[in-house]
């Protein structure tokens, strides 16, 4: 019985590795077209300060500072609410192309812009 187990183990390992590589190549599954952009808050700055996205694209915001921040549109189109230390929140970009300025509503000197292009 031990011989059979030894012969099957390499085949099992190869199968697991092939399955894992397929997941890495297509993390959203076959046919997925969802895009995600990211903004990181660090040292009381948004990075990048200007982000170009497509209409309706998901934008993830991660706060690396030890204090709470927000990412709040100056025209009311989006707002993450409070984002604590090492927390990530997401929102959808506006569907209408244009330039959308934003601030941290707690530290209003922190600014940036999202550019929505088709």
What structural category characterises the helix and strand content?
Answer: alpha/beta
The CATH topology assignment of the largest domain is Immunoglobulin-like
CATH level-1 class of the largest domain: Mainly Beta
Largest sheet, if any? 4 strands, mixed
- β-sheet strand percentage: 25-35%
Written as H for each helix and E for each strand, in order along the chain, the element string is HEEEEEEEE
Shape: globular
- Terminal CA distance reads 61 Å
Give the strand tally.
8
Instruction: Supply the number of structural domains.
Output: 2
| Average pLDDT score | 82
CATH architecture of the largest domain: Sandwich
Q: Can you identify the CATH superfamily of the largest domain?
A: Cupredoxins -  blue copper proteins
Query: Which regions have little confidence, pLDDT < 50, spanning 5+ residues?
Result: 11-33
The DSSP helix count reads 1
Query: Strand order of the main beta sheet, please?
Result: 2-1-4-6
């Amino acid at each position: 019985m031990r011989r059979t187990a030894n012969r099957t183990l390499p085949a099992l390992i190869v199968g697991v590795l092939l399955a894992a590589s397929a997941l890495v190549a297509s993390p959203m599954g076959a046919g997925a077209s969802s895009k995600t952009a990211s903004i990181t808050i660090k040292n009381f700055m948004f990075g990048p300060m200007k982000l170009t996205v497509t209409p309706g694209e998901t934008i993830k915001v991660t706060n690396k500072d030890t204090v709470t921040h927000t990412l709040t549109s100056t025209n009311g189109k989006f707002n993450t609410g409070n984002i604590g230390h090492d927390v990530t929140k997401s929102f959808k970009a506006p569907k209408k192309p244009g330039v959308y300025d934003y601030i941290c509503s707690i530290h209003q000197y922190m600014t940036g812009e999202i550019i929505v292009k088709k």
